[in-house]
Amino acid sequence: MARLVVLGGGVAGHTAATFAADWLGSEHEVVVVTPNAKWNWIPSNIWVGVGQMSKEEVTFDLDPVYKKAGITYKQAKAVSLNPEGNGSSDKPFVTIEYTGQGKAGKSEEVTYDYLINATGPKLNFGATPGLGEGSQLGEHTVSVCTADHAQHAADELTKVLDKMRNGERQKILIGTGHGMCTCQGAAFEYIFNVEHEIRKAGLRDMADIQWISNEAFMGDFGMGGLHMKVGGYVVSSRIFTESLFAERGVNYITGAHVNKVEKGKVSYELLDGTMGEETFDFSMLIPPFAGVGLKAYNKAGEDITDTVFAPNGFMKVDADYTPKPYEQWKASDWPLTYQNPTYKNVFAAGIAFAPPHLISKPAKSPNGTVINPTPPRTGMPSGIIGKAVARSVCDLIKNGEGAHLHEASMAHMGAACVASAGKGWLDGTAAAMTVYPVVQDFEKYPGTGRDTDYTFGEIGLAGHWIKHILHYLFIYKAKLKPFWKIIPE
Amino acid sequence: MATKPEEFNFSKHDQFNNSMIPGKFARALRTCKIWQFIRFIVLNIKMLIVVSKSH
Lengths: 489, 55
What we know:
The structure holds 2 protein chains of 2 kinds.
Chain A: E1 3-7, H1 11-24, E2 29-34, E3 38-40, H2 45-48, E4 59-61, H3 62-69, E5 72-82, E6 93-98, E7 107-111, E8 114-117, E9 122-123, E10 132-133, E11 136-137, H4 147-165, E12 170-176, H5 184-200, E13 207-212, E14 227-230, E15 233-236, H6 237-248, E16 251-253, E17 256-262, E18 265-270, E19 275-279, E20 282-286, E21 289-290, E22 295-296, H7 305-308, E23 346-348, H8 380-399, E24 415-420, E25 430-435, E26 456-460, H9 461-478
Helix pairs in contact in A: 1-8
Chain B: H1 14-17, H2 24-30, H3 33-54
């Protein structure tokens, strides 16, 4: 019997674990280590954050689902890896620390034959003074990164709406809280959902809504923007993004590194080196992501974290990490199999793998401050990578070390993304977009780097219907209800 | 003559003045149930093609 340990129960980890358990059957063991008791459909946190969904509607208990799937579930956080074992055994293991199941605070060593690291990110609020401490949200702003954060954001937003009803004009600031954030899409969804709710309440004239982002231009989204065919033209996502902001009367600041957050005020540096300040009554700023801080040790107990993980804490995989200028970046730099180059029985999936470089063009202010979005690797790519890695591990277990590894390069896969711009079955809208491939391939698609036959975007009610249906569909799939396997990632 | 509502935002900010803002018809289509039902079918097909190319 082989044991596969999956660290993390998010989109990548849950996908990998559930498929692996299904493919391996009861002959082998699948263990999931995740500090959370509940699974969270994160894209719908946006609607929790504006009071249009409850926390319970976007989460469910993991324990019964893993019991049904025959997965051993440990509610714990991984602390360190010993991929060579230790002085007393050659068996690799992970040291975990329980966060629940009546064993909170207790440590355990979980041995493995194969390991999938799908821990997701550490929400690095502490990177910006005043935004928070470590992974803890601070007191000046709100967040929609977790269901609890989103609930708190909704409560704070209600207070802001009440103030507007009482004739008090309010300033709302939404965007990214650091120069190296990713997930601009979540902030984009939140600002337009907030604007939609304020408009629905008849209070739009009482609110000044401001966007602040580390993107060099509107519509970059950490992917260097995208080009799509519309009305016979091939146009940049910048045109469409700026259009939506102008239509909804939302001012924007781009190329901004938020370097300090205080009560009712943020300070920032722009790409041109100038400094600025923006006040607010209500603010949601996305934190930057970092690796969760796993340590690695060799058999002698020496720290080999630098061998297994990149400096940002994400796990090294089969990518080309050679530093090179933007002009020399290639699609082939991106990983194919997500196998760790040093320890072949270790894989990473989703946000946990270290990308070889950015997708967007790198940028620095004249003061040397790095201000550019880091690559998004959430949602559909996370699910596809999780499934491909699970398939590789299952083949390795069943067919031995020579088994073929499955590939899921972000430079070969597309992504469908539906960004909500307001909830409502009859008056909601969302930007439905696809991009193919996620990482530009300028050798294959000179000009835009992508296939414009499969890269498109459109805003409307249909997009909202898709987004809302996907909410139910993916929660249904994650609960492993009948026919869950036929629902694509 | 009064400014058309969809054109009002052009004067609100210099940023908006160089943008394209949808007119009344384009906005109406965004929430027109019949048109959006058609777009719903089209978008699903387009997305499924991209999804199938990505697996």
